[in-house]
């Protein structure tokens, strides 16, 4: 048996088409959706990722402003820039890209991103709104997991889901999205003990631990749908997930690839969130844009 491959490429293209159509509506009304990406690092892989967002944004009709403050930017400078962008009517979405300079506290900065422009759900207010079922942008990676399950018509309601990893970027917001869809959710972390105790009986296993090869065949069963959120760069430069693909694919029912799975959908959703934010921020245009947050 070989696990079915849950590629994110087709879904990402569909999301990009939705984004382009919505951006065209806004542009026709004289408002071009604008995303600001704040960068403060000399890490080349980060700059490569940001440039790739810019290229995809441009093809979708979105203006992407890369605000490169350099690796020596202070927390005060970053705070000032985020306040200015949050107040700027011409900016509709804001991302504070990590990593940040040594000593700079991301948790104090993300709270400065206006919630209506917080397209990657970084502001704690966004997570709080998700928790109580109010409108907010979920972190794009967390939403990408749910969108992939829906795309492949994998049931969520009534299913048992084990999420490995409890970060505010993936694990916690994803658990809230899944609970909203009537799943029974278990979250595992470093103190949970043997993972197979929680994963083998689960219908869906989502792993977002940042640990290459963490999940193996002993952690899954023949019914397992495995969603690999991990993005780990090996010394040779190759990208791998948190799943030992060759091991898990010999047992599980389905598995997302890395690359080409969750990450592909995540990038597409960031841009969709930008046009959704642009539509929501315009009282005259909001009814014309298919907002889904």
Describe the structure.
There is one protein chain. The protein has 293 residues and is an alpha/beta fold. The protein has helices at residues 9-28, 44-59, 75-87, 106-109, 124-131, 140-151, 171-180, 196-199, 245-248, 262-280, and strands spanning 4-5, 34-39, 63-68, 93-96, 160-164, 184-188, 204-207, 225-228, 232-233, 239-240, 254-255. The protein folds into 2 domains: 23-113, Rossmann fold, CATH 3.40.50; 140-263, Rossmann fold (3-Layer(aba) Sandwich), CATH 3.40.50.720. 38% of the residues lie in helices and 14% in strands. The strands form 3 sheets. It has a 6-stranded parallel sheet, covered by helices on one side. The protein has a 3-stranded parallel sheet with strand order 3-2-4, with helices on both faces. Strands 9-10 form a two-stranded antiparallel sheet. Strand 9 and strand 10 (239-240) form a beta hairpin. It is globular and about 50 Å long.
Give the tags.
293 residues; alpha/beta; Rossmann fold; six-stranded parallel sheet
- The total number of structural domains is 2
Mean pLDDT: 93
What's the architecture of the largest domain in CATH terms?
A: 3-Layer(aba) Sandwich
Segments where pLDDT lies below 50 for 5+ residues?
283-293
> By CATH's scheme, which homologous superfamily of the largest domain applies?
NAD(P)-binding Rossmann-like Domain
Q: How much strand?
A: 5-15%
| Main CATH class of the largest domain | Alpha Beta
Total helix count? Answer: 10
Q: What portion of residues is helical? A: 25-40%
Alpha-beta content class:
alpha/beta
Major sheet summary line: 6 strands, parallel
Helix-strand string? EHEHEHEHHHEHEHEEEEHEH
CATH topology of the largest domain: Rossmann fold
The overall strand count is 11
């Amino acid at each position: 048996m070989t696990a079915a491959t849950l590629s994110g490429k087709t879904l990402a293209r569909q999301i990009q088409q939705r984004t382009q159509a919505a951006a065209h509506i806004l542009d026709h009304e004289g408002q071009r959706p604008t995303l600001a990406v704040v960068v403060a690092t000399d890490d080349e892989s980060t700059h490569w990722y940001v440039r790739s967002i810019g290229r995809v944004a441009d093809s979708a009709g979105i203006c992407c402003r890369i605000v490169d403050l350099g690796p020596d930017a202070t927390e005060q400078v970053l705070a000032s820039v985020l306040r200015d962008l949050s107040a700027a009517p011409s900016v509709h979405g804001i991302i504070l890209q990590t990593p940040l300079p040594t000593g700079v506290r991301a948790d104090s900065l993300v709270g400065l991103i206006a919630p209506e422009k917080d397209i990657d759900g970084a502001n704690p207010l966004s997570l709080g709104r998700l928790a109580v079922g109010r409108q907010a942008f979920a972190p794009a990676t967390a939403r990408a997991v749910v969108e992939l399950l829906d795309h492949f018509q994998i049931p969520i309601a009534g299913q048992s889901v084990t999420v490995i990893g409890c970060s505010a970027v993936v694990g916690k917001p994803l658990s809230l999205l899944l609970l909203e869809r009537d799943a029974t959710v278990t979250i595992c972390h470093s103190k949970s003990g043997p993972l197979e105790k929680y994963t083998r009986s689960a219908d869906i296993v989502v792993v977002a631990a940042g640990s290459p090869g963490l999940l193996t065949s002993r952690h899954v069963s023949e019914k397992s749908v495995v969603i690999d959120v991990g993005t780990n760069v090996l010394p040779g430069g190759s990208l791998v997930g948190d799943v030992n693909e060759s091991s898990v694919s010999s047992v599980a029912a389905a598995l997302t690839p890395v690359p080409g799975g969750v990450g592909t959908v995540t990038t597409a959703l960031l841009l969709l969130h930008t046009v959704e934010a642009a539509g929501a921020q315009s009282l005259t245009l909001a009814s014309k844009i298919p907002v889904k947050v």
